[in-house]
Write a structure and sequence with these properties.
- 33% of the residues lie in helices and 18% in strands.
- The chain is of the alpha+beta class.
- The protein folds into two domains: 51 residues; 144 residues, no CATH class.
- The chain has a five-stranded antiparallel sheet.
Amino acid sequence: MAQKIESSLKNMVISLLVITLVAGLSLGFVQQVTKDPIANAKQQKEIEAISAVVPEFNNNPLEQPIPAIIYIDEVNFPVVYTAKKDSVVVGYAVLATSSGFGGNVRIMVGFTPDGKIYNTSVVSHQETPGLGDKMTTEKFRSQFLGFDCKTQKARVKKDGGDIDALTAATISSRAFCAAINKAYRAFCYVTKDESGLDAESGATKHNN
């Protein structure tokens, strides 16, 4: 008959250490196996977001992202990606973040070399379904097609701007506009256009 292992503190500690070691090795293995696929999926998503907001390009904009650190204390500073076609710059895609009603709103904003908005894409948000999440619709985003931040105001009309706010979702609309303004400042920072570095933002200065 096999001898019964005596239950003792020593045995319990050894068992716990073995279990912890096995679990740790397993987690490390899984992380190593999934690291590259996750990174590739993230890169593909970013490329798709860039492709949606700038003219056709054939370089890899992700190779040389430019962090637009305009203000030292700025949180979630914009990142600028340069799109080129046969070595000629065709546009700039800017990933900008602002604070919405439910959390951060991340928008990819595409600019043509002359500073007009080519298109926009909502990368992520936490806005209210049926209200703030309508910022993702073409109806709302179409207001920014060809938008010139030099001559137009990327603010809701309630705040003296040129943008129709989403019904019952003014804060979300302001967040979108704030991201647009942050993106434009980043564009001006990269292209050394000082005229746009003071573009306003401020998604939640006002109440709904």
